[in-house]
Amino acid sequence: MTATAPPRSTPEAGPSSGKSAGRGRLRPRVPDRLRRIGLPYLLLFPALILELLIHLIPMVVGVVISFKGLTQFFIRDWGSAPWTGLGNYRLAVKFNQPVGEALLHSFWVTVFFTILSVGFSWLIGTAAAILMQDTFRGRAVLRAIFLVPYALPVYAAVITWTFMFQQDTGLVNHVLHDQLHLTSDKPFWLIGPNSFWALVIVSVWKSWPFAFLCLMAGLQNIPRELYEAAAMDGAGVWQQIRKITMPSLRPVNQVLVLVLFLWTFNDFNTPYVMFGQSAPHAADLISIHIYQSSFITWNFGSGSAMSVLLLLFLLLVTAIYLLFTSRKGEPDA
Amino acid sequence: MRTNRVFAATALVAALGLTVAACGGSDNKSSGSGGSTGGSDKGVTLTYWASNQGTSLDNDKQVLTPELKKFEQQTGIKVKLEVIGWPDLLNRILAATTSGQGPDILNIGNTWSASLQATGALLPFNDANFTAIGGKDRFAPAAIASAGAAGQDPAAVPIYSMAYGLYYNKQMFKDAGIANPPATWDELVADAKKLTTGGKYGLAVEGGNGTESIHHAFVLAKQRGSDWFDASGKATFDTPANVEAVKSYVDFIAKDKIAAKGDAEYAQNQTITDFATGKAAMMMWQSAATSIKAHGMNPDQYGVAPVPTLTAGATGDAGVTSMVAGINLAVFKNTKHQDAALKFVKFMTSTDEQKILNSTYGSLPPVKEAQSDPAFQTPDLKVLAQVLSTSAAPLPQVANESQFETLVGTAIKDLFADAAAGKSITTDSVKAALTKAQQQMPAS
């Protein structure tokens, strides 16, 4: 994979050549033993502290809150909120009652949304990356244009989409109804059942360039000779894609699909900007749902319990995914 | 070479650590350089979180800055202003409450008063504190009633007051041969049907805005003698009267078809745009003069009447035509500069400042003395002032009010979406939605 890396690492210390004086003076003094055993841990230590502060402690606090009845009466001193034991969890998983029912609904909405969004993003990204392999006039420009959705600030991009999706004055209905006459009436996109599809469209538009970027990088690592040899043996384009491109892209795809899945499943910005603090029933993604439970209805304990359940689910999915994709004998990614 | 990396890494970590520390510390100090509470307040800097009242956040800064300068000249107390948009305000207040590091003084929407009061983060306005700002009697009683739960010291004082009125387009009424604005809902529906022709509608509603819908649902329920919470503060969302109230509101699109289906999507004041551009003949709105003018409609082109009631001339609860709308000014309990903060509250609620600020924002002064100013004697403001003093009731001042706004607001929003999609809205479907909202209320 990284054929060019080893020779580069020795002669020049890339990031900070300015401190070359210090390097020269100190290098010989490091005892061998420290270098052999202590140094890796010493290097890990700062990262460990930060990891603790930024990730672990807030996570533990979140888990603790999920066992408490934390409402506005206690937020000034959340430690004083009463313990509810598993009460918040029990409420969240009582699927025949409103709270649990709403959570389960938003869970399924999120699952379908994620499958569709990741699927389409991956398909479009792959197709575009393969098409962009051949050199042609305007390739660089086209490539740059492809990356625009990825580079734009989420808020600006999504708010533009919501303007386009407006029932009365939006561009989408203007094209569908006024120009192409595909619909008998102007459909709603931001309320009602269609809001789900509007959300999928914006999400795909937003995330396929990332797939495109990763896959394009992956394709560049496939030696040209393979294709040449295959072509000599009489393999067509489709066969080349199936037999050479796809297997070679497997490591990239493994990471890509996992990352896209996690991002999409947890996506908060897109629905929040599109629908505000409460999304339509059909597009009630779990992130917005939890946000609403915690910060709008001020039921932080219940919101935390839902977050923990979500975390457990995502951990489980990730574990299963890694188990299936990383075959034995191969070094882990 | 390796040690070089150690250095680089350590330096980086140290730098990050410093940044983190700096972030943590800076908020703390923003609310005052002096630190001492005793003696003179000179040299103290207060932090003020103002809500968005003008046409934009920058507009608010332009309006408020000269007034804050005036306060500084009078007292020597500096005020650091931050204008916060409505979507962020509640979260910012919550964050400040949890961390204990907030502003000294802040604006809150008056419907949140009891909810925020329950956190214990706001300074109660007891007799002593009211005396420090010039007395409780200076304020309109209805405005004080919307500053906290009954039987407790208010958690804030009112600064801007608003009320709902029925705005109607005079020319469109004349063209349709309607002499007077409707006084009852039946009249409103009948008039609006006459006005709904040729792509124009009789009424515009902000169907996608849950908070807005709550205000109307509250009034419609009140007129039917129903409330959203019982005396003990427990939710009673799905009483028959509440169901009927919500249904009658959603029916403007579903059954009467006097409002455009597209209104179900409105959540960004498109209602005002439709009214001001002649797409709709009526709307129910609070203190809309400034916004209507911004869209090019002159004050003499429209009239304002009280919102209709079930029967003409109804009184008491049946005659409630508006919630008590408005903004309150609160002091953060853990401010280090309570005296200075109270001085600031006194300044902002002084008769002169009330006149200046409320006339700029098109709202009404909750301070009685300022109400007689000519700036508030325009025909529309006179009607709204009348509504506020005679037929307005505060939203339920219970700790769970903010949850009520979200849950019932969302339910109504979804009902409007169903109506727009052509689904039939029945008593049962409305009841189911409200029952579900009620069951989602956290136990308190």
Explain the overall architecture.
The complex is a heterodimer of chains A (333) and B (444). Chain A is an all-alpha fold and 333 residues long. Chain A contains 15 helices and no strands. In chain A, helix 3 crosses helix 15, helix 5 packs parallel to helix 10 and helix 5 runs antiparallel to helix 12. The longest helix of chain A is centred in the N-terminal third of the chain and has 35 residues. Chain A starts with a helix and ends in an 8-residue tail after the last helix. Helices cover 46% and strands 13% of the residues of chain B. Chain B is built from 17 helices and 11 strands. In chain B, the strands form 3 sheets. Chain B has a 5-stranded mixed beta sheet with strand order 2-1-3-10-4. In chain B, strands 6-7-5-8 form a 4-stranded mixed beta sheet. Chain B has a two-stranded parallel sheet with strand order 9-11. In chain B, strand 1, helix 2 and strand 2 form a beta-alpha-beta unit. Chain B is globular and about 65 Å long. The chains are: A mainly alpha (333), B alpha/beta (444).
What attributes characterize this protein structure?
heterodimer; A: 333 residues; mainly alpha; 15 helices; disordered C terminus; B: 444 residues; alpha/beta; 4-stranded mixed sheet; 13% strand
Summarize the amount of helix of chain B as a percent range. 40-55%
Largest sheet: number of strands, sense, barrel closure of chain B = 5 strands, mixed
Distance between the first and last residues' Cα of chain A: 12 Å
Q: Give the helix proportion of chain A (percent range).
A: 55-70%
Strand and helix map with partners:
The complex is a heterodimer of chains A (333) and B (444).
Chain A: H1 5-9, H2 20-26, H3 32-66, H4 87-93, H5 98-131, H6 139-146, H7 148-151, H8 154-164, H9 171-179, H10 194-219, H11 224-232, H12 237-265, H13 269-275, H14 286-296, H15 300-325
Helix pairs in contact in A: 3-15, 4-15, 5-10, 5-12, 8-13, 10-12, 14-15
Chain B: H1 2-29, E1 45-51, H2 57-75, E2 78-84, H3 86-99, E3 105-109, H4 113-119, H5 127-132, H6 141-145, E4 157-162, E5 164-169, H7 170-175, H8 185-195, E6 201-204, H9 210-223, H10 240-254, H11 270-276, E7 280-286, H12 289-294, E8 302-305, E9 322-323, E10 325-331, H13 338-348, H14 351-361, H15 379-390, E11 392-393, H16 401-420, H17 427-439
Parallel strand pairs in B: 1-2, 1-3, 6-7, 9-11
Antiparallel strand pairs in B: 3-10, 4-10, 5-7, 5-8
